[in-house]
Amino acid sequence: MNDAAKPDIFYPSEEVLNQANVNEYEEMYKYSVENREQFWAEQAETLNWFKKWDTVLDESNAPFYKWFDGGQINIVHNAVDRHLENANRNKMAIIWESEHGEVRNFSYNGLNREVCKFANVLRSMGVEKGDIVTIYMPQIPELVFAMLACAKIGAIHSVVYGGFSTEALASRIDDAHSRVLVTADGGWRRGKQIDLKSIANAAMERSPSIEVCICVKNNGLDVEMEPTRDFWLHDLFALPIASSKCETVPTDAEDPLFILYTSGTTGKPKGMLHTHGGYSVYTSTTHRMAFDIKPQDRWWCAADPGWITGHSYIVYGPLINGATIMLYEGAPNYPYPNRWWQIIENYGINILYTSPTAIRGLMRFGDRWPKKHDLSSLRLLGSVGEPINPEAWRWYHNVIGQDKCPIIDTWWQTETGGFMVCPLPITPLKPGSATKPFFGNELAVVDDDGEEVEVNEEGKLIIKNPWPGMARTIFKDDARYAELYWSQREDGSWRYLAGDSAKIDDDGYIWVIGRMDEVLKVSGYRLGTAEIESALVSHPKVSEAAAVGLPHELKGNAIHTYVILIDGVEPSKELMLELKTHVGNEMGKIATPEAVEFVEALPKTRSGKIMRRVLKARALGQDEGDLSTLEE
Ligand code: WT7
Asked: CDD domains given for it (predicted)?
């Protein structure tokens, strides 16, 4: 890199340095990778265990690693119960505000009451340890209660993002064989009501496994209830079964806590499975260290609990650390583009953690909106989901962070459970780089043969070690998990393949460039081209379809699709719009294609695989690269 191209470096202020939870990186990093098990055992000691573990890390069946095996714990015992025994009992756990101005607060004591009642209700519906409950909800406190209630009784939750639609929900219910679905009448978005229950009804029709549907009344929509299947939560809460006392069940450290579906290279989403023990240790440690969590902090992760960011850093990590969490249901710019800044001022938020897309989206309305508000309570800012472009970084840093808040750019994945690469508040920052590995982790960039590339050279990002927060498997598909993510070296060691391309610079800073597979990041949301394609093909007039992601200034990726119609159907503007709506209805609004182009043929390999790379190059007017495998 020549000097002109060198990024600026931002150093932390005295104030940040003085209050850091971790005030030194290099030595502690060295210790953590040389004594990995010891390091993680020390972190695990900060949690409450029903029974201590026998082994910290069991590698005997790699890449199916076990952490803290033999130990007994329950994440809810740490996220809720233990706070009831100390001053946190009356501390605010959740502050919730909805788009239309409703506010509800819950102390840790109140949180416990709601979780206990919910857990008792689930039990009364026959939910037992190991059962999978699907949760499809807007961003309301009951979503958090439902997740914790499952965990408390040892059931497994599968949260499906509330922005997904019929087919996305149905296929996830089906894969999990859920008997119970928790949903709500509706949600709010940009002044409009989202009719969740009717989507849930349509999905339940497609997925016969559901026997019980518990529905939360959120916005009072008139919804269709099926009398023998559907129950209002408030009716159930009024019954004696919904007692506010419920014992937390001890679970084995390796017992499943949740599955969360994420997109990959095939049309079938992967249910990534996470466990009670390692995940508790990993989310709380990363959250505490990377975000310098203090007892008095008000923490706002402005993601949706329905994605891994919300699971790990709205719900579990912050609650284990006893923080006060902010939850907002609605659009960032409703009714005006100052909504978020107003929330920060109103509630005195100290740390804001969000995505580059959200930052770019709000930046476009100009400085005058944040400048109307006192943002001085902010101490740290965070970024996640995609690489942050330097322009957005600077705006976030200067205007929102008033030049004093370090930006914690965290690289991780649904699969990793928690931060893998991120700065600490004390780390000198380079805009656009997630900086250095978190403790215990060793990363590298390799070429196609698995050899490590030179400094500043691009290649595949890999992780060379297991970590407690790692997904244990793909639900019901161990073979696919091992094959997709892991490879064994000649010396017997294992490597985790992240699916991202990256570079490592002269200072050891990691620069993530983007996905190398058929995964798109649209406004930070992870979608698979295959899922979009199968939604298109499910339309009766479509014969074949291909989806690619093209760069988009605001969204990161925009979805462009190519469609071959069935014989005899003529392309038209109406059909184009119909197909866009169809994908939105099947998958969810976020998956609505930016463009639908009707074509006669698609570039394919001789074995019949669509060459999306060629479509992408053509759309961007770039060199199409090696075409030797293209069929005639
Ligand atoms: C993919 C994982 C992890 C929570 C949200 C996303 C991209 C994530 C960053 C970052 C550059 C990032 C990667 C990764 N990504 N964070 N800080 N810088 N890229 O989880 O939905 O499983 O997506 O998001 O491409 O592989 P996910």
From this structure: ACS (cd05966)
